[in-house]
Amino acid sequence: MNQETQQFIIDHLHDDVRRLAFKTVPPAIDLRYALQQIEARRRLTDKVPTWASNLQLEFPPHLSVEQCSSERTAHYKTTLLQGDTLVDLTGGMGVDCYFLSANFRHTHYVEQQPLLAELAGKNFASLDANIVVHNCPAETFLEHCASVSAIFIDPARRDNSGRKMVSISDCTPDVAALQHTLLAKAPNVLIKLSPMLDIAVVLRELQHVKAIHVVAVDNECKELLVELERHYAAEPVLHAVNLTAAQTERFTFRPSEERHILPTMAAGVGRYLYEPNAALLKAGAFRTIAHRFGIDKLHTNSHLYTGDTLQNDFPGRRFEVEAVVPFKSKLKPADLRHTNKACIAARNFPLSVADLRKVLKIGDGGDTFIFATTLRDNSKVLIFGHKTAQ
After folding, report:
1. Cα-flanking dihedrals φ and ψ of residue 211, to 5°?
2. With CB atoms 3.0 to 4.6 Å apart as the test, which of 159, 186, 232, 262 could cross-link to 208 if both were Cys?
3. What's the confidence (pLDDT) of residue 35?
């Protein structure tokens, strides 16, 4: 990228990209590339802020920017791997590799796409990161790789048509087929997988699984991180992790614990209502969470919990219940507590949120929350409440 193009990017970082596309510029400016860089920086502002604000860095096309890890999830990975030498077999844009490299004396970035490898090399140099770049397929690098401390791999989850892949064997590289080779090269392997994958499938297809981390950011599941450890034969640990700006919500359990706990159903709605975060729901700790916090489930399929004691450490949202109203086809204003607007959620309920708004004639927003759900006796209710103080 020449100086004129770089200056154009700096001058127009906050301009409308669609309008800039029709702008007449001097021949020295690569307009198409400049627009790509401006758009990439905007997408990365919240996702990888330290990179987005660094004007020395260059970014690849849209798909790679979309698929790269966020800065928050990359920082979380640094708590899982450390040692002398790291190999990132699917480097991509290099975000994970860069942050992980701080925990290792030597780091090798491997990427088969020439453009990504070239840009990563430039960016690592600009960031003064001690990372060696290799432009080759992961399998080729593994053939000649000596023993290392740890391997990180994030197999591609799209095929050549851009279709999202959700099966381990459909991803590239196929980590299920490579797992024995990976563990022969490194005692510790960290695999990043799609949050859409079924955890039971992961445990069935991969061996020596030490732990699985379900990682969410602001209550949206982003990735499954699978730790493999050479010769590990014990039961894996599941970590449900929700990363927020204020805190990290973490809940740890084992599958056998979940299987052996008897579910407890609430006779009615207590003083407080609890909604688990997305990571915990994905991890499947439905019985364990109730047992640990001494709360009861409203219904087998509702995944909402209740109790009369406030549990401030509960990993999710906590509400103080104001009223429980039986759901009927026609509700009077008094039944709705004269509420004009509210945040509505439907859990194990026959109507969608959109349908409920039409029936209830309530706008969106405000401090009131309404949960439309089903109780143990299969009765349909509306639970009114507000968030508890943190």
Report:
1. -160, 155
2. 232
3. 87
- DSSP annotation of 39: H
d(CA 335, CA 353): 18
Residue with tokens 């990363």: 243
For 351, counting Cβ atoms within 10 Å of its Cβ (0-12 exposed, 13-18 middle, 19+ buried), the class is middle
- Judged against a pLDDT cut of 80, whether residue 345 lies above it is answered with yes
By the 8 A CB rule, do 228 and 181 touch?
Answer: no
C-alpha pair distances (Å), 140 with each of 198, 373, 379: 29, 53, 60
Q: What is the average pLDDT across 236-250?
A: 95
Once rounded to an integer, what is the mean pLDDT over residues 97-125? 97
Between residues 339 and 90, the one the model is more confident about: 90
The pTM assigned to this predicted structure is 0.91
On whether the CB atoms of residues 277 and 219 are closer than 8 A, the answer is: yes
* 8 Å CB contact between 93 and 65: yes
> What secondary structure does DSSP assign to 237-293, as a single string?
EEEEEEE-SS-EEEEEE-HHHHHHSPP-B-SS--SEEEEE-HHHHHHT-HHHHHHHH
**CA 345/CA 57 separation, integer angstroms:** 42
| Gap between the Cα atoms of 201 and 194, Å rounded | 12
Q: Which of 184, 258, 173, 179 is nearest to 226 (CA)?
A: 179
Q: Which amino acid is at 355?
A: D
148-167 per-position pLDDT tens digit? 999 999 998 755 555 555 67
Q: How crowded is the C-beta side of 257, counted as CA atoms within 13 Å?
A: 18
